[in-house]
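Dear support,

I submitted the protein below through the web form. The confirmation email said the job was done, but the results page showed an empty box. After a refresh the structure appeared. I'm attaching both so you can tell me whether what I see now is the final result or a partial one.
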Amino acid sequence: MPENLKQAIRKKILTLLRNQKEEERLKKSGKILKKLFSLPEFQRSHTILFYASFDGEVETFEMMKQAHKLKKMIALPFMIKDQKKITPRLVRNLKTGLHSGPYGIQQPKDEHVEDLTLEQLDLVIVPGVAFDKKNYRLGRGHGYYDRFLSRLPAGVPTIGLAYDFQIVDRLPHLHEHDLPVSRVIAN
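What the results page shows now:
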């Protein structure tokens, strides 16, 4: 039953994400950006792992541009599909340094990349289809972020970004690797 419930929540919220008007999505994303940039965790960070937003998610490309202007080092996940693994890679140029990776998600190109160790990350911005009141997340069902978050050193803040309709009271937890994020910023 819990797996069916996860699938139902995932399907419902993905539909809401995809059907949201672009103007509304960008307006809410701008408010989330302001909340994120005001956090002490963001302000003291030097190297931030963002995610490349797609399919209606909270817009992160503007966040990355503005963070870069603030002299933050920007990294994005590089997905190794056959291992279902994420490796953080430094991105020096958002316009020319990305290409379409697994699932159509933008990721760093192979050439001229710099892999980062998990210890080099000061902050991780985490996508999610849904989050609950205890900051647990529901992803797209492939497990990349669950495995990645379980490997992060203790003390690295993890922040989920969401629209209000992505916040639910409680998500079913099926696996011991289901980990909450440090906090969720929603609008």
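Response: this is the final, complete result; the empty box was a page-load delay. The first helix runs from residue 2 to 19.
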